[in-house]
């Protein structure tokens, strides 16, 4: 019996000795002296599991109390140590009974029955943790599952509940600091939320693909206790909201702060986390919307980047017209800044309280290259697409864009990624506006040249200019009033109902994505076609302006000569000058007609007309094909505006019929069938006249 009492304390006896461990976490085995009678050995065998479990628990406590095993294992080891102290008191009491001669093996077995169950549970917990190499949340998940499995055994359930509550105490303390104060103190890397210092808030205004909000604080799923899985995202977001407020220099103290205590009924601390989440989300939302005036800033950005202030943008384009024609290396940004300041102060934008945050920027790549680079970044192929600025000869117009200064915490919503999307929309709209101004300048020149030009080819140039102007103006109207304004209206309605910052980010991102998509800026094929159309329009306007330049100069010289001499001439001299003017006009008209009837001018106008029509038909065809592949049909609006009288539909039907005829002929040539079999076959609709073919994107069918 003394040997058993020694073994219960981890000391070998005379008749019973412990055997060396086969493995680090193996159960302790014992060697019994065979000289003992069988009945004694049987009673000893019933008591030895207590000694083996005690050995397992003590080894677990000694190991898990080390620094590297974390706060949860430390707390669990301390709780087990408390129970082992009670066990040691029991061994002392048994030894006292033995010394008094009142202890037998049968009595010892009886007294140890409750302790056997306790040590068996402790050893089971220790073995499970050792086998799984668990730390932090994994330990708590294991304890929670064991506690739930013992719900029918009150004593075992209470024991496991004590162990779980003790082990949860440091972890739930970390949760409390995070959801009530917004900071993490996690020296052992056990907490479910981890801070990644590689992502900092300063990069929000520097990098397009910076993921500060998503990755600065992130959840490690392996560290989440099973009883907190349902609220893990709320725990993450609650702390993130409070952390943003703390970084603004404000002291955060949640009025609903209560100590979190583990219970089998999860509803209690779920309610605590829910209250903390509601408080944190409302606190940050009020900070952004009321104190930082987020909605007003977004409206300010819309004024400039989405051309909401018409008088400002027209005045700015008038002031910078000469600068925009220069090469990017010849432009002084300081001069553009001065002109921007002047345009802001002398337009309705002067009432905007955030106008001083607007800046000018000259990018080393055009819009198409920028979009291709962004697509490469989003598809993780950034290294495959590198832009060499030395290979691009850009004008100020092609490289110009606005920039906007945004400070923390507003930069959470208006990040560099969001600003680049605004810049893409602005560059597209700005270039379209420039093309419209160029075509309007051609119209002004046409009005002066009408007095001199009688050639039919100049009339053809007038008609082509009007078609181009109709395309550009309708395209601008579609983007401004059928895409941006409806989406902005929906965005404002959504902003009135938001309850947290994540919803603000989602609605703002959806607004920009919808605008980019419906403005055909997410499809490289559509963008290339639109860009070609705009380039054709600009090239045409430049050409016509060069041809009209001689006429404009002569007319201006004649006007000035007349204005300076008119007041000093007599009536007779005035009549003579009028006759001379008429003669000069006839000579000038003959000169202009000679230029316009030149074969090169005729061919150039025809070539412009052909290119413009081809690209426009290609655009309409591509839009119809794109829309038939999806359930969204907003792009059909631009088709209805450009083809309001069915003019292009007839051309598309003719193209469709020609392609169908070519396909049919190639198919017939490839077949080696007999004349009789071919004559007996059904007549294909493609053999009909082209006028009977009806255009349908991606297929061909006969008119009903």
From TrEMBL:
<dbReference type="InterPro" id="IPR042241">
    <property type="entry name" value="GCP_C_sf"/>
</dbReference>
<dbReference type="GO" id="GO:0043015">
    <property type="term" value="F:gamma-tubulin binding"/>
</dbReference>
<keyword id="KW-0206">Cytoskeleton</keyword>
<dbReference type="Pfam" id="PF17681">
    <property type="entry name" value="GCP_N_terminal"/>
</dbReference>
<protein>
    <recommendedName>
        <fullName>Gamma-tubulin complex component</fullName>
    </recommendedName>
</protein>
<dbReference type="GO" id="GO:0007020">
    <property type="term" value="P:microtubule nucleation"/>
</dbReference>
<keyword id="KW-0963">Cytoplasm</keyword>
<feature type="domain" description="Gamma tubulin complex component protein N-terminal">
    <location>
        <begin position="2"/>
        <end position="291"/>
    </location>
</feature>
<feature type="compositionally biased region" description="Low complexity">
    <location>
        <begin position="666"/>
        <end position="690"/>
    </location>
</feature>
<dbReference type="GO" id="GO:0000922">
    <property type="term" value="C:spindle pole"/>
</dbReference>
<feature type="domain" description="Gamma tubulin complex component C-terminal">
    <location>
        <begin position="294"/>
        <end position="648"/>
    </location>
</feature>
<dbReference type="GO" id="GO:0000278">
    <property type="term" value="P:mitotic cell cycle"/>
</dbReference>
<dbReference type="GO" id="GO:0005813">
    <property type="term" value="C:centrosome"/>
</dbReference>
<dbReference type="InterPro" id="IPR041470">
    <property type="entry name" value="GCP_N"/>
</dbReference>
<dbReference type="InterPro" id="IPR007259">
    <property type="entry name" value="GCP"/>
</dbReference>
<dbReference type="GO" id="GO:0005874">
    <property type="term" value="C:microtubule"/>
</dbReference>
<dbReference type="GO" id="GO:0031122">
    <property type="term" value="P:cytoplasmic microtubule organization"/>
</dbReference>
<dbReference type="GO" id="GO:0051225">
    <property type="term" value="P:spindle assembly"/>
</dbReference>
<keyword id="KW-0493">Microtubule</keyword>
<comment type="similarity">
    <text>Belongs to the TUBGCP family.</text>
</comment>
<dbReference type="InterPro" id="IPR040457">
    <property type="entry name" value="GCP_C"/>
</dbReference>
<dbReference type="GO" id="GO:0000930">
    <property type="term" value="C:gamma-tubulin complex"/>
</dbReference>
<dbReference type="GO" id="GO:0051321">
    <property type="term" value="P:meiotic cell cycle"/>
</dbReference>
<feature type="region of interest" description="Disordered">
    <location>
        <begin position="664"/>
        <end position="704"/>
    </location>
</feature>
<dbReference type="Pfam" id="PF04130">
    <property type="entry name" value="GCP_C_terminal"/>
</dbReference>
<comment type="function">
    <text>Component of the gamma-tubulin ring complex (gTuRC) which mediates microtubule nucleation. The gTuRC regulates the minus-end nucleation of alpha-beta tubulin heterodimers that grow into microtubule protafilaments, a critical step in centrosome duplication and spindle formation. Plays a role in neuronal migration.</text>
</comment>
<dbReference type="GO" id="GO:0051011">
    <property type="term" value="F:microtubule minus-end binding"/>
</dbReference>
<comment type="subunit">
    <text>Component of the gamma-tubulin ring complex (gTuRC) consisting of TUBGCP2, TUBGCP3, TUBGCP4, TUBGCP5 and TUBGCP6 and gamma-tubulin TUBG1 or TUBG2. TUBGCP2, TUBGCP3, TUBGCP4, TUBGCP5 and TUBGCP6 assemble in a 5:5:2:1:1 stoichiometry; each is associated with a gamma-tubulin, thereby arranging 14 gamma-tubulins in a helical manner. Gamma-tubulin at the first position is blocked by TUBGCP3 at the last position, allowing 13 protafilaments to grow into a microtubule.</text>
</comment>
